[in-house]
Amino acid sequence: MPDDDVFLALANPVRRRLLQLLAEGPRTAGDLADQFDLSRPAVAEHLQVLRRAALVHDEPRGRQRHYHLTPEPLAQVGDWLHPFERFWRERLRSLADAAEEEDR
């Protein structure tokens, strides 16, 4: 099961957006900050939370930090969610069957 820090990190929409951006490839902290209407220190705090949850890692290059997505914790979340996905798929199938019956 994923660490609670992972779920806490994913609970915030800014951090989810940061992960989406990093899924496209590594980016500098400045480039990431430019994608938000937040101060650079605020974005840096979000990146720190993602780092603590091991969802990203950073690589210093000169005066810049390049952030990279760390996919393993997300794979653990996906594995944990898989049984729930089956549950909802069955529920939606039942709902679709009921709607089809009503249309007849």
Automatic annotation (TrEMBL):
- Keyword Transcription regulation listed? The answer is yes
Instruction: Tell me which UniProt keywords the record has, alphabetically.
Output: DNA-binding, Transcription, Transcription regulation
Q: Which Pfam families match?
A: HTH_20 (PF12840)
Which GO molecular function, any one, fits this protein according to its record? DNA binding
Family annotation (CDD domains):
HTH_ARSR (cd00090)
Kindly provide the name given to this protein in its UniProt entry: Transcriptional regulator, ArsR family
Describe the location of the HTH arsR-type domain by residue ranges: 1-89
What InterPro entries does this protein's entry cite? Answer: ArsR-like_HTH, HTH_ArsR_DNA-bd_dom, HTH_MetalResp_TranReg, WH-like_DNA-bd_sf, WH_DNA-bd_sf
This protein's record includes keyword Transcription: yes
